[in-house]
User: Fold this.
Amino acid sequence: MKDGPAFQLYAADFYMDTVEWSSTQVGIYFRLLMYEWVNGVLPNDEKRLARIAGTDPGNFKKTWAQDIAKKFSPNSDGNLINRRMEEVRLEQQEYRKSQREAGLRGVEVKKKKGIFPFDKSSNPSTDPSSNPASENQALLPSSSSSINNIRILLSQFLFDEILKRRPNLKKPNLKTWAKDIDLMIRVDKRDPKEIEKVIEWCQADEFWQDNILSTAKLRKQFDQLALKAGKQPYIAKAPESKEVEQDTRTGEQQKADMGKLRNFMGGVKLKTMD
Assistant:
């Protein structure tokens, strides 16, 4: 499937374009449109088109020649497309992209204001004065906020990418999927932009595209996916070792490193405590 499971049908345009057609013509035309939406193109072969339309080749040839053929034209590969259908597809792609980008921008705004990634469930304290984080929580909007939206949008983005290969896949509960995205952002400290890039990469990879079929699996394999995608993953703080690492540098190396440190600190203005 090239895009989402549904496309926008402009009722007035469709009706006026087919108002003088027979019910058979309308049915064939609509079945061809649906096939194109799911598969991206139609084969330029009347026998195959007849099977797609659900009619016999003889009846299809006559019906096709009357009016339907002029609704489709060859693309650069020689397959058939409906130009208006592809315009609708492009509009939908641009809309989804703008929604996803808007959600990412919203997250960045929240981060700059210092109210991200907190949410109401991250701190049980109900006294704003007892914890600075609770002050930030009080500033958070309702579930329709951009932070919550990005969780749904990233979940939808993963599902849309999977649908391109598995058009018959049952739609999951996106709210459940969004919980894993929420954990990735709040607990794992993943950047939403990195999550988007890793989703795009893994669904284009021949091996991982069949292994990452949910946000739960995405979260579980994220470090490995990010490394393979050439992205810098979030690295958790390593546990402190009880053994002191031995300094293997030579005396000259230590002096040189100390000189660099002094030069650096010489340009840093330290804030003193009163």
